[in-house]
Amino acid sequence: MSSDSSQSPPDTPDRRPLIAFTWLWVGAPLAYGLYELVRKATQLFTG
Amino acid sequence: MSPPVAPPGWSRWLVPPAALSVHLSIGQAYAWSVFKPPLESALGLSGTQSALPFQLGIVMLGLSAAFGGTLVERHGPRWAMTVALICFSSGFLLSALGAAVEQYWLIVFGYGFVGGIGLGIGYISPVSTLMKWFPDRPGMATGIAIMGFGGGALIASPWSAQMLDSFGTDSSGIALAFLVHGLTYAVFMLMGVLLVRVPRPKKGADGAPAPLEGVQVSARSALRTPQFWLLWIVLCMNVTAGIGILEKAAPMITDFFADSSTPVSVTAAAGFVALLSAANMAGRLGWSSASDLIGRKNIYRVYLGVGALMYTLIALFGDASKPLFVLCALVVLSFYGGGFATIPAYLKDLFGTYQVGAIHGRLLTAWSTAGVLGPLIVNWIADRQEEAGHHGADLYGTSFLIMIGLLVVGFVANELVRPVAARHHEPAVQAPKEGTDVVRQQPESA
């Protein structure tokens, strides 16, 4: 399967803004969680 | 509800965020421990009592994934994500009511029973769809989603703790925190519900949906194959070995180096636990993606074979070197995560995509079993060793030997996996038309 569901007709909307928004939607909280994780994990070497 | 078919030009890179919005939410379950101390002090509960909502939630996860898988296949991912959203959020709202009126049974019922159904249906909801969108990289696709389940706890743990700090840890503060969780997760998961699409079915020469390619086995038939039960053993053994470390990570590293010149502090042990969570998450995406390149059977050879070697190194030399202990534990935990994330793609290789979500749901009973086995082995043996006067690394030696044995059993089970016999294959199975269920073409003789 190609990166799109089918051969895109020329008048199909540009999905890139939607892709960016949706990845940001899930990426932002995940980045927060990872930041907190790294902060805690460094305690293994400093604690 | 009809499966939502993608319009022309829909990008498959919109499907992983849909899956992540559900998995990042339901992964909150592993951060339940944040609520335990406040509940215990506000409602006068014991530690065992305050664990009940989580335990019931995990039981319901296994049951709803096992028994709801066929419904998920029939109604499609949007229906499943909607059910997951309603159940998971309602669970929090019922818990908020329970905390407000100080009726603990309502929290157990809400979070554990109702929310637990959301966990199980939500966990399997995007798996089959992702593999249909990414037939070239099914391991990576499911790895992204299942990594989200690990990531959910990373987000919820500090977020819930901060909320309790702000609202207070009395019953009204807990109620408000539950309420905010329920509403926030509903909005967050809604994006997945609205976004998810199934790929447009390929058309045959006559314009009708073309049959699915390759071997296709129904969920009912899969249960009758040795392959299903061999993979059940593989998953159960791999998860048991991972939980063996995860369950007692903090006391384990403290005990291992208690007599050394550089004992591990409580703070450093908490850092070790966090590092294990990172390895667990990284393994889900990394190893599962690697399985697309080296093959599913080979990657499980690594999980189980190298996993046994890591346990051997910890058992023999773990107390002599802190870096070696940490490194081996991280590798084992990355294999634990990888095992979870790779199993849907292994199932797809053997049984096809026809009912892989339902088959995956049934296989997750291995997780439930391992969730009981792993902690039971490590805790029971550590307690007996302590009673016998042992201390430090000696508390865990026997557990590690058992874990090595279990991993070898899993390794042998993986070696015995062969392609599914033709008698279990479905006759030509068509991809679903818009708004219809999967169609099975009966052979002319049927």
From TrEMBL, chain A:
This protein's record includes keyword Transmembrane: yes
Alphabetic keyword roster: Membrane, Transmembrane, Transmembrane helix
Keyword Membrane (UniProt): yes
Record-annotated membrane-spanning stretches: 20-38
Listed name of the protein: Oxalate:formate antiporter
Protein's organism: Streptomyces olivaceus
TrEMBL record, chain B:
Keywords on record: Membrane, Transmembrane, Transmembrane helix
Superkingdom classification of source: Bacteria
TM segment ranges: 12-32, 52-72, 79-98, 104-127, 139-161, 173-196, 228-246, 266-287, 299-318, 324-347, 359-381, 393-413
Annotated InterPro entries: MFS, MFS_dom, MFS_trans_sf, Proton-linked_MCT
Membrane topology: Multi-pass membrane protein
Domain Major facilitator superfamily (MFS) profile: 1-422
Record localization: Cell membrane
PANTHER family: MAJOR FACILITATOR SUPERFAMILY (MFS) PROFILE DOMAIN-CONTAINING PROTEIN-RELATED, MONOCARBOXYLATE TRANSPORTER
Name of this protein: OFA family MFS transporter
Organism of origin: Streptomyces olivaceus
Lineage of the organism: Bacteria, Bacillati, Actinomycetota, Actinomycetes, Kitasatosporales
